[in-house]
Amino acid sequence: MIECSNCGNLYDESLDHCPECLSSLHETDDNGDECGGIFEAVSVWIKDKGRPEIICRCAFCGALKTEPVEDSDNPVTLMSVAARPIASPPFPIERISELTDLMGGQGDMDGYYRDHK
Amino acid sequence: MNRENKRRKYDKNYYKKNPCSDSFTCRNCGWPIVSNGAGSNHRNHCPNCLCSLHVDETPGDRASSCGGIMEPIGVWVRSDGEWAIVHRCKRCGKLSSNRIAADDNPMKLMALAMRPFAGNFLDKDRLNDMLGTMQSQGDLI
Fold it and tell me: Which residues 42-81 of chain A have a CB within 8 Å of chain B?
């Protein structure tokens, strides 16, 4: 068993990241130098053939890596990692309906919620 | 020959110190791109398809021998609340993170952020059980 250096959770050595907080330790970088930073899960992407992977970023040196999602991973943490960009959009969400209108789609979000109430 | 052109040709670290203001067409989608309008002097990716090229190892050194197309695979939120795109090289798999620009296609950005939710990577039953133990009203079905 290893203790997670980020959240203190105990997990099995065969896993490459902590199943609770999805972070791992950045031991050596590409040049073989010791780093010791914590790889934080920053995003999720679906690789070809539908295999989901976590995108991790070292909080100390900024290195990026991807790791496959394990079955034991906490689904709530995964969900919150995937939903984080949606929670802080870079532009007002109202602009989306303008844009979908321009593209000829039915992007009227008020109408959707009105109809489904 | 103009001095600036000469410097650009012979100084290996020219683009580390100076922004590149050339116009070019995107190698992935053919969109014509000018350097203005990005909100920064350093345009990194195509504002239409968000693809980039693997030309640098560290920013501005033009040292990569790969030259593959870097496709956008996801977005993440930096500590200052700004979005950044994670690019992955189609040829060699190198990952890099880049700030979004002012004129990036907002629909493509939103599509990129919503992409994980399109696949069923989350076990809905397990998520329901978990939310149940957290005593929340998070019933998905």
Answer: 42-46, 50, 52, 55, 57, 62, 64-66, 69, 71, 74-76, 78-79
